[in-house]
Amino acid sequence: MSELSGQIREAVRKLLRQKEVDLVIGFEAGTLPLHSTPCFIREQQEAERLIWNSFCDNNLAKYLGKRQEKIAIIAKSCDARAIVELIKEKQISREQVVIVGVPCHGMIDRRRAEAELEGKEILEAEENDGELTLKGNGFTKVLKRSDYLCYGCEVCFHRNPVIYDILIGDGVAEKATDQYSDIAEFEAKSTEERWRYISDQVSKCIRCYACRNACPLCYCRECFVDNTHPQWTGKTTDISDTMIFHLMRAFHLAGRCVGCGACERACPMKVDIRKLNRKLVSDVKVLFDYEAGISLDRTAPLATFKPDDPEGFMLNP
Amino acid sequence: MNNPYLPSPMRIEGIVTETEDRNIKTFSLSFLDRGNEAVFKYIPGQFAELSVLGKGEAPFGIASSPTQKGIIEFTVNKIGLLTTALHNMEPGETVGIRGPLGNGYPLTTLQDKNVVIIGGGFGFSTLRALTTFLLDKSNRNSFNNITVIYGARSPGLLLYKDELREWEKRADLQLYVTVDKGDKDWEGRVGFIPAITKEIAPRADNAYVLVCGPPAMIRFTLPVIEELGFPPERTLLSLEMRMKCGLGKCGRCNIGSKYVCRDGPVFTLAELNRLPREY
Amino acid sequence: MKTKIIRKQDMTGLLNNLIQEYEVFAPVKRDDLVIFDRIGSDKDVSLEYTNSIKPPKEILFPQSETLFTCGSIGDAASIEVPVSEERPRLLFGIRPCDARSFLLLDKVFNEENHRDVYYLSRRNDMMVIAIGCIKPRATCFCTSVGGGPFSSQGSDLLLVDIGDDYIIQVITDKGSRLVEKVGVADAGENKLALMKMVIQEAELSMSPQIKTDGLKEKLDSAFDDPIWGSLTEKCLSCGICTYLCPSCYCFDIIDEVTDSKGERIRIWDSCQFPLFTLQASGSNPRPTNKERHRQRVMHKFSYCVDNYGQVSCVGCGRCVIECPVNLDIRQVLTTISNR
Ligand SMILES: Cc1cc2nc3c(=O)[nH]c(=O)nc-3n(C[C@H](O)[C@H](O)[C@H](O)COP(=O)(O)OP(=O)(O)OC[C@H]3O[C@@H](n4cnc5c(N)ncnc54)[C@H](O)[C@@H]3O)c2cc1C
Ligand code: SF4
Ligand code: SF4
Ligand code: SF4
Ligand code: FES
User: Fold this and answer.
1) Which residues in C lie closer than 8 A to residue A32 (C-beta atoms)?
2) Which of A14, A33, B239, C266 is 20 to 30 A from residue A24's alpha carbon, by CA?
3) Which of B101, B116, B147 is where one domain is finished?
4) Residue B116, domain member (yes or no)
5) Mean pLDDT score of chain B, rounded to an integer?
6) Cβ of A268 under 8 Å from any chain C Cβ?
């Protein structure tokens, strides 16, 4: 990992030195164990701050919109996929970004790791060779890294950036294709069970909008929940209001969600937001044979119309 | 315990469409429960929260003067949810009111002083209240010269046209009305408020100047006022911020540690200079 | 100060006793989240927690609450204020930092000229039984902001876990009346010595994390410092740090309508949301992360000192832990202090 950090710094220094970009968006060390944090670099000498490890879980594509400068972005594959969608949706031009792609082994889900410790506080975390070592007052615990990945990473089948200008390190082996087995499992449940599950999850929501604000594809200048006229949904935490927020958001992301899981990780209340989004990812794949963020050339299915578009989901939901 | 969030019902007595584009109307209201009139004691420069129940609540400067008995007036620009709902109402219907809120213009300080009033857009509403108050028979002798400079973007957007005509005729008031851009019928002044103020050059000795209007107008007028010799302590501004509670609690209208709803909306420039520039 | 003692296993009886008389709120586990909720019996309570994700402020100041309803839309004469017939509330097992936060909320909602009847109706007879922290987290910095793991400010009774027993520190008269009524024994000398040790150990485990000396002056003079821009560039403008903060209290007032009824509702709002200060004219005094996040920090560490004589951060560390981009208020304060 530290090797990758070194290569990233080297590449960034060069980009800034040759004035190819004005701004670099990457990660630096966080203030808490198991955290890296987004950082913004404009001077060569600041490149030292950049790091790469298994805690670089934010989707940095979030920060690309509404900027004038020429930007280099350190992109793991889900960041790169979000960039593809942003380019297609004309939120940024291909020429404005230099994509520094980093093949990815998956990011650590710190909550999964914490759950292993039954309330004991992690004060230090280190990773090497597929192991994650957690230390605290009076304990050291070694975990197998691959058992503690974010859920989004577990089901990720595009670990090598699909688009890049500079590639850091060697590629990583891809898994076989996504079978959406988790979604199939969910679909197998009865309507009542599914409704109850989603309702239970959504009832925890406090409408902090961290999910929306962390999502690289939620960039609307005014989100429908903020509109006052017309007012699409109420503002309280009553389940009828929060449900509309989550359902509408999921629909807005159909065929656009790149499955990075940024929403879910941002959520302080551990709402299983992924269920809805991933169900739609799966539907779009099944119905339109389309995956978001893979190709710059293919138009998103919900941004176009063909007479022979499947419509079964409308007629018999 | 008195509940500061409860509006009192008021009846719409009259509605005057002020501007040609029909986007600004003045509402005259009277309390359903006459007893509330004595409780609602206000001075010019204060504001109140008007409610259309089911639509919401928003702050509006009180456009009438306490010397006008029986009614309270508001001049409302149609811009969003609540203001549109208000504009759709008819005389006889009920609205809610909460207030009076804020500090208002410092009437005692203005006593025996020359008063220069500069207003633009619908920001003129509370200055109209002040002017009406100063001109009232029982008050006029307590104040020296009164100068009013009032501007709108076009003649069609001037408010209180009948009143302006009345004031024009008075000898105890210097009124200067200007528009940014005239039309074929306009015979009055044309020019932006800062330029007109510079031209008129009201004297600063023993005088206070009060300014209310859109941010751009304020920004360009302040240097002129300073040049004319008004010190920051005698330059008063009425500010607008987004507000909700009007009680210094909901947290959105502060500039530094001052809440515009509670400590303002009227501040001296000297006070504002001590605060962060975040307005 | 009076001190009482109760065996841990006797707590059950005490709690069930209290439930007879009060609406008792206590930490409970829901899925894997600890939250404060109304409890029906002692069995729901889970005292094995460092702190809850959501602060207990919502017991006094709920995320949404009806201020009044009106019969038909536009009928200002038909206003009805909901009346609560609830018994007085008792908060059991909250942390000292959260108990302190109530004193701040009091200053805002119990201001002389504008008393907030909704808040006060819950606050007035409320009893607070806090539990001291024998294992503060690395993110806790209560000691840097005037509190401590065993601070009694804001509590009526404070429990200290000394192993098999809890020492009950009796802080207020209200607390005293309660312990007299339920009848618990006085704490003996040796138990008190044990308590002192426990407290000392916890306090020693905490090191100062922010420099508060001269911080306000520093902040005031650094208002225009461009560092605010770089410190906050990563902020997502979400509601986490404010919604989860025990001493943040900003709100919005909105109307909602059903078929025949209008409701005026107060909901939490956040200075981190761009719409919070957007004016009808379209101008916004806090248009970017920089102004918004600066507002949050200044409000807590400067403006509240001016207005209420104290900082409005109790050092609970929630915003530090839960910020999705690790924007750490301790780091922000330290950076400004060092300018
Ligand atoms: C002290 C004080 C005194 C004031 N005095 C007066 C006065 O005398 N007269 C007066 O007219 N005003 C006055 N105002 C301003 C007035 O309070 C606002 O105009 C009012 O709050 C607007 O409320 P609203 O519900 O109509 O707008 P909102 O619906 O809250 O809308 C606010 C803004 O957001 C925009 N907006 C809302 N929804 C949408 C959407 N879906 N899409 C795009 N944009 C949207 C609106 O266009 C508007 O610009 C005063 C304000 C203050 C603070
Ligand atoms: S991040 Fe979680 S709590 Fe916040 S709005 Fe999204 S789902 Fe709700
Ligand atoms: S600091 Fe963190 S928690 Fe607060 S608004 Fe910004 S991103 Fe959200
Ligand atoms: S600012 Fe952060 S640490 Fe301070 S009280 Fe609020 S949530 Fe806790
Ligand atoms: S309007 Fe709520 S604090 Fe000023």
Assistant:
1) 139, 320-321, 326, 328
2) A33
3) B101
4) yes
5) 93
6) yes
Instruction: Sort C106 into a burial class: Cβ within 10 Å, 0-12 / 13-18 / 19+.
Output: middle
| B145 and B200 both lie in a single domain | yes
**In C92-167, where does DSSP find H-type helix?**
96-109, 117-123
- Cα distance from B80 to chain A (closest Cα, Å)? 8
Q: Is the CB of C237 under 6 A from ligand 3?
A: yes
Closest CA to A208 of C226, C320, C237: C237
pTM, to two decimals: 0.93
Q: Is B132 domain-assigned?
A: yes
Nearest to C249 among B57, B251, B253 (CB): B251
Percent of chain A at pLDDT > 70 equals 98
CA distance C121 to chain B (A): 10
Pocket around ligand 1 at a 6 A CB cut-off: A 222, 227-229; B 47, 56, 58-61, 75-77, 79-83, 122, 125, 240-241, 243, 265; C 280, 282
Instruction: Report the pLDDT averaged over residues C115-125.
Output: 92
For residue A1, the model assigns a pLDDT of 59
High-pLDDT (> 70) share of chain B, %: 100
Of all atoms in ligand 2, which is nearest to the CA of residue A209? 5
Tally of domains in chain B: 2
- Mean pLDDT throughout C76-87? 82
Cβ contact, residue pair C265, A265, below 8 Å? no
* Interface size between A and C, measured as CB pairs under 8 A: 100
pLDDT tens-digit map of C167-201: 999 999 999 999 888 888 888 899 999 999 999 99
Q: Where are the domains of chain C?
A: 3-204, 215-337
Contact C64 A236 (CB under 8 A): yes
**Is the residue at B258 inside a domain?**
no
d(CA A57, CA A267): 13
> Residues with Cβ < 8 Å from C153, sequence gap 6 or more?
C96, C99, C100, C103, C147
For residue C293, list chain A residues with Cβ-Cβ distance below 8 A. none
What integer pLDDT is reported at residue B108 of this predicted model?
94
E-state strands within chain C: 2-7, 23-30, 33-38, 64-70, 79-80, 89-94, 127-131, 157-161, 165-170, 185-186, 251-257, 262-268
| Lookup result for tokens 């009886």 | C13
Same domain for B44 and B128, yes or no, is no
Q: Is the pLDDT of residue A243 over 60?
A: yes
Tell me if the bond preceding A230 is cis, omega within 30° of 0.
yes
The answer to whether B155 touches B183, Cβ cutoff 8 Å, is: yes
Ligand 3 centroid – CA B80 distance (Å)? 29
The answer, yes or no, to whether any atom of ligand 3 lies below 6 A from the CB of C321, is: no
Categorize the per-residue pLDDT at C74 as very low, low, confident or very high, splitting at 50, 70 and 90. Answer: low
- Measured between beta carbons, which residues in chain C are less than 8 angstroms from residue A269? 33, 53-54
Question: How high is the mean pLDDT of chain C?
Answer: 91
Which residue, among B83, B252, B271, B274, would best test binding to C if mutated, counting the most C CBs under 10 Å from its CB? B252
The answer to whether A229 contacts chain B (CB < 8 Å) is yes
Q: Is B111 on the interface with A (CB under 8 A)?
A: no
Per-residue pLDDT, A140: 94
Angle B198-B200-B203 (CA atoms, 0-180°, nearest 5)? 90
How far is ligand 3, taken at its centre, from the CA of residue A210, in Å?
A: 8
- CATH for B180: 3.40.50.80
Residue C12 or residue B199, greater confidence: B199
Asked whether residue C77 carries a pLDDT value surpassing 80, the answer given is: no
Say if B253 falls within a structural domain. Answer: no
What value, to the nearest 5°, has the Cα angle with vertex C251 and ends C250 and C254? 165
Classify burial at C214, counting beta carbons within 10 Å of its beta carbon; exposed 0-12, middle 13-18, buried 19 or more: exposed
State yes or no: pLDDT of A162 exceeds 60. yes
Q: Touching check for B217 and chain C: CB below 8 Å?
A: no
Q: Which domain holds residue B174?
A: 107-238
